[in-house]
Amino acid sequence: DSVPSPELALAELEAALEIGGVGTWRHDLLSGAASWDARMRLLHGLPPGMAPGAAIWEALIHPEDAAAVQAAFRDALRGGGEFRAEYRLRADGRWLRVVARGEYLGGRATA
Question: pTM (2 decimals)?
Answer without folding.
Answer: 0.73
